[in-house]
Amino acid sequence: MGLAKVLRAASGLTDRHFNVLRAVERSSVRGKLARVESVARAVKLSEGYVEKLLGDLHDASLVWSPMGRRSGYLLTYAGLDALALGVMLRRGIIASVGGEIGVGKESDVYVADTPEGERVSLKLYRAGRVSMTKYRRTRDVPSELGSYLAASTRFAANEVHALRILSGAGLPVPLPVYRNRHAVVAQLIDGRMLVKARSLPRSPEIILEELLRAVRDAYLAGVIHRDLSAYNVLIDSEGRPWIIDWPQWVSRDHPNGLFYFRRDVSNLVDFFARRYHVEIPPSLVEEFLKSVTQA
Ligand SMILES: Nc1ncnc2c1ncn2[C@@H]1O[C@H](COP(=O)(O)OP(=O)(O)OP(=O)(O)O)[C@@H](O)[C@H]1O
Ligand SMILES: [Mg+2]
Fold first, then answer.
1. Which of 169, 186, 203 is the last residue of a domain?
2. How far is the CA of 109 from the centre of ligand 1 (A)?
3. Are 197 and 285 within one domain?
4. Are 127 and 213 members of one domain?
5. 61 and 203 in one domain?
6. Residues 127, 33: one domain?
7. Confidence of residue 7 (pLDDT cuts 50, 70, 90)
8. How does 30-51 read in b/e, with b if 16+ C-beta sit within 10 Å?
């Protein structure tokens, strides 16, 4: 379902709908179906009324009942989106959402507008989306869903944590604006993925040099990206590189930190050698790695 539709659904919900949706969320993250009786107790409304509210949420695809309505309800990703967007709307973080700018395996990225008319990025994590569509037995869904919802929120929190540290250190990463649940609002970078850039506004040598400096400074700030590649670098119109997509970062104290750091650096160096014939002697790369990690 499109996010604009979710946003419309979220803006049309009453506080009672939100309370019911939150009660379903609390069960879902624990891997349990939410039955009408227990939701009614939680929100202190009659079962008949809660049944009607759940019917509205079901019609808007914010909850579903994999084993029939009697057995209870689970949250959908659209429902999780509605909860997060509902908070962001109420707090004036965003006013509307626009088009999709990126679809990954486990996240969707949109442009959004703030009430002040500024454009920002909105990333919504969808952990388990790939495997959830493949599940066989419906009775396995609740517990899997619970861990996926929790994982999505964890990824979002991890990413914002890294972005705070790195933007605080002045590194070229999107400035984080706000997070709720699995949703991250950040600075919108006006750029193209390095891997898709047809021509670069500046020399590839300088761009690689800036990237390596950023990767070094991130390491010195304690952060290793761990999934660095030309897919996670955006090049803006002035040819400046920005590093995005940080949910899987590890601290430099991680037992495999050196391995991950080396791999991130190699991915960049190899890409520039392959695509732009920027040849850096292996001994120089080794020297760089040593100078950074033994600093
Ligand atoms: N702050 C941003 N500004 C501009 N565009 C962005 C921003 N964040 C993400 N994007 C766009 O969305 C795409 C996907 O974002 P990102 O790399 O963060 O997640 P992902 O690759 O989808 O995650 P996954 O690893 O789950 O597939 C990027 O390639 C980029 O085009
Ligand atoms: Mg990515």
1. 186
2. 6
3. yes
4. no
5. no
6. yes
7. confident
8. ebbbbbbebbbebbebeeeebe
Q: Give the pLDDT score at 24.
A: 98
Q: Are residues 67 and 145 in the same domain?
A: yes
- DSSP state letter for 32: -
Starting from the CA of residue 130, give the closest ligand: 1
Tell me: do 31 and 128 sit in the same domain: yes
CA of 17 to the centre of ligand 1 (A): 32
What value does the mean pLDDT take over residues 277-292?
Answer: 97
Question: What residue's CA is closest to ligand 1, atom 26?
Answer: 106
| pLDDT at residue 135, as a whole number | 55
- pTM higher than the cut 0.70: yes
245 C-alpha to ligand 2 centroid (Å): 5
Pairwise CA distance, residues 126 & 105, whole Å:
8
Q: Name which residue sits closest to atom 11 of ligand 1, judged by CA.
A: 102
Are residues 125 and 199 both part of a single domain?
no
Residues 6+ apart with CB under 8 A from 74: 24, 27, 28, 33, 34, 63, 64, 65, 66, 141, 142, 145
Q: Of 186, 221, 252, which closes a domain?
A: 186
Q: Nearest residue CA, atom 15 of ligand 1?
A: 102
- CATH number for position 34: 3.30.200.20
* Number of domains present in the structure of the chain: 2
226 is in which domain, residue-wise? 191-293
CA distance 241 to 239: 6
Nearest CA residue ID for atom 22, ligand 1: 104
What pLDDT, in 10s, does the model give residues 227-242?
999 999 999 999 999 9
Pocket of ligand 1 from Cβ distances under 6 Å = 101-102, 104-107, 109, 121, 123, 174, 186-189, 193, 232, 244-245
* Catalytic residue annotation: 227
Task: Give every CB contact of residue 248 below 8 A, 6+ residues apart in sequence.
Answer: 155, 158, 225, 226, 227
**pLDDT tens digits for 193-206?**
999 998 999 999 99
Measured in Å, residue 88 CA sits from the centre of ligand 2 at 24
Ligand 1 atom having least distance to the Cα of 186: 1
